[in-house]
C-alpha cells in the first residue's frame, strides 16, 4: 500500500553522521560498513536522540528517511546555528497592537485552534513584516513561535548564503525538511530583500539562481499544505527595504504587515521597560518618562534601548569616579582574604554594594538623549510602499 511505497522510495538514502548529530526522524539505523562489505556494527536511534557512542567517534554511514545524502550534512549546522531558544511572547513587546492582532488572527489562532478556523480563514503561510530597522520585527516573529510553542528557525542571509557559497540550495532543502520534522515551526527569513534581491537578475550566478528556485519550491510547498495539520510550518520574513524585494518573492509573502515607529505611549512603555523598576531613582517618575517620550519622536525601539543603555553606562562611570578604584580593589581583596577563613562574614565593602545597585537618574537619561540620535530619518517610503503593496485588513 501507499505507506510501503513511500518506505520503498526512500530506502537507500544514506548520509554521514558525526558524534553529536541528532536523529531527526522516528528511526535511524546507523551502521558502519567494513571494506569487505560486512557491518562493523548496527545501531538503532530514535527520534531526537543524539548520536553519542564514544566508541563511534569516527564518521559512520546512516540510513534515514526522506532526505538526500548530500543535503543531510547541513543538519547540524542548521540545528546549532539556526534554531533559537524562544522565550518571548506578545506581552513582552511594547505597542504594535495592530500587528500583533493580525498575526494572532492570521497565524497563531488558526494553528492553535484549526477546527475553529476551517472554512473561515485558512492560516497564511507566508507573511512579510516590513518597516524601519529596530522596530520589533524579529521580536514579533519570535513571539509568534512562542505563542504556539513552535520551533524557531532564525535564518539570516549570513547563515543561508554567505557562509556556504554554492551549497545554499542544499541548506534550504535541509532547513525546510527540519522545519517540517519539528512542526509546528516558524521559518524566519531575516533581511529577505538581501536574500532574494530584485537586482542583479541578469548577472545572477548559477548558484544563486538554484538557491532562489529551491527557496520558492519550498515556500510553495508550505503554502500549498495550508490547513494540513501535519505540516504546520509558517514562513515569516522581515525586510527594512521591501522595495528591493524580488517580485516573485513578494507574491509568495501574501500578507504584508507594516511595523512602524513607536508612538508616544509606546515609547513611555519602552522607557519604563528598559530602565526597569529596580534600577531607577525615585526621581525617574511618570513626568520624567513622559518628557523622555516627548523628546524621542522618531526614535525606534532599538534607539530607545540604546539611550537607556548609555544612561546606565553614564551612571556607572560616575560611580567609578566617586569611589576610588584602588581603594575598592584593596577592599575587595581584603574581603576575599577574610572570606577564606570566615564564611559569610559581614558582607562586602562600600564600593561593592554600590556597584550592585545602579540607580539611574533623570540627568543620566537626558544626557544620553543628547548623544544618541534617531537612526530612522524618513518613513515616507515605507508609507508609500504600504499603500501600494501592504495588506488591507
Ligand atoms: P527589527 O525590526 O530590526 O527586527 P528587532 O525586533 O530585532 O528589530 O528589535 C531590536 C531591539 O530593539 C530588540 O531586541 C528590543 O530590545 C528593541 N525593541 C524594538 N522594538 C521593540 C518593541 N516594540 N518592544 C520592545 N522592544 C523593542
Automatic annotation (TrEMBL):
<dbReference type="GO" id="GO:0016887">
    <property type="term" value="F:ATP hydrolysis activity"/>
</dbReference>
<dbReference type="GO" id="GO:0005524">
    <property type="term" value="F:ATP binding"/>
</dbReference>
<protein>
    <recommendedName>
        <fullName>AAA+ ATPase domain-containing protein</fullName>
    </recommendedName>
</protein>
<feature type="domain" description="AAA+ ATPase">
    <location>
        <begin position="123"/>
        <end position="263"/>
    </location>
</feature>
Amino acid at each position: 500500500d501507499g505507506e510501503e511505497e513511500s518506505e520503498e522510495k526512500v530506502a537507500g538514502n544514506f548520509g554521514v553522521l558525526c558524534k553529536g548529530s541528532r536523529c531527526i526522524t522516528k528511526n535511524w539505523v546507523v551502521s558502519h560498513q567494513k571494506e569487505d562489505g560486512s557491518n562493523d556494527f548496527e545501531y538503532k536511534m530514535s527520534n531526537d536522540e543524539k548520536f553519542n557512542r564514544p566508541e563511534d567517534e569516527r564518521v559512520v554511514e546512516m540510513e534515514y528517511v526522506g532526505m538526500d545524502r548530500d543535503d543531510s550534512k547541513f543538519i547540524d549546522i542548521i540545528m546549532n546555528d539556526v534554531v533559537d531558544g524562544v522565550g518571548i511572547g506578545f506581552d513582552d513587546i511594547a505597542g504594535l497592537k495592530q500587528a500583533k492582532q493580525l498575526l494572532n488572527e492570521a497565524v497563531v489562532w488558526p494553528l492553535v485552534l484549526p477546527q475553529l478556523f476551517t472554512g473561515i480563514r485558512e492560516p497564511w503561510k507566508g507573511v512579510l513584516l516590513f518597516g524601519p530597522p529596530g522596530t520589533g520585527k524579529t521580536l514579533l516573529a519570535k513571539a509568534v513561535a512562542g505563542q504556539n510553542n513552535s520551533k524557531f528557525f532564525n535564518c539570516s542571509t549570513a547563515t543561508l548564503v554567505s557562509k556556504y557559497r554554492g551549497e545554499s540550495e542544499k541548506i534550504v532543502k535541509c532547513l525546510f525538511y527540519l522545519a517540517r520534522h519539528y512542526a509546528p515551526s516558524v521559518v524566519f527569513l531575516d533581511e529577505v530583500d538581501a536574500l532574494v534581491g530584485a537586482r542583479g537578475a541578469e548577472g545572477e550566478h548559477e548558484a544563486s539562481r538554484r538557491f532562489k528556485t529551491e527557496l520558492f519550491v519550498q515556500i510553495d510547498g508550505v503554502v500549498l499544505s495550508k490547513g494540513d495539520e501535519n505540516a504546520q510550518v509558517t514562513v515569516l520574513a522581515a525586510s527594512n527595504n521591501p522595495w528591493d524585494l524580488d517580485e516573485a518573492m513578494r507574491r509568495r509573502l501574501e500578507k504584508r504587515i507594516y511595523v512602524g515607529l513607536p508612538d508616544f505611549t509606546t515609547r513611555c512603555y519602552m522607557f519604563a521597560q528598559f530602565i526597569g523598576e529596580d534600577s531607577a531613582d525615585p526621581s525617574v517618575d511618570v513626568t520624567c518618562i513622559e518628557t523622555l517620550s516627548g523628546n524621542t519622536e522618531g526614535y525606534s525601539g532599538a534607539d530607545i534601548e540604546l539611550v537607556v543603555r548609555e544612561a546606565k553606562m553614564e551612571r556607572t562611570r560616575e560611580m567609578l569616579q566617586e569611589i576610588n578604584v584602588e581603594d575598592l580593589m584593596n577592599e575587595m581583596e581584603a574581603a576575599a582574604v577574610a572570606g577564606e577563613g570566615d564564611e559569610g562574614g559581614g558582607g562586602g565593602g562600600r564600593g561593592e554594594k554600590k556597584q550592585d545597585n545602579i540607580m539611574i537618574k533623570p540627568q543620566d537619561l537626558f544626557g544620553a538623549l543628547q548623544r544618541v540620535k534617531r537612526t530612522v530619518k524618513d518613513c515616507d517610503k515605507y508609507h508609500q510602499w504600504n499603500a501600494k503593496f501592504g495588506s488591507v485588513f
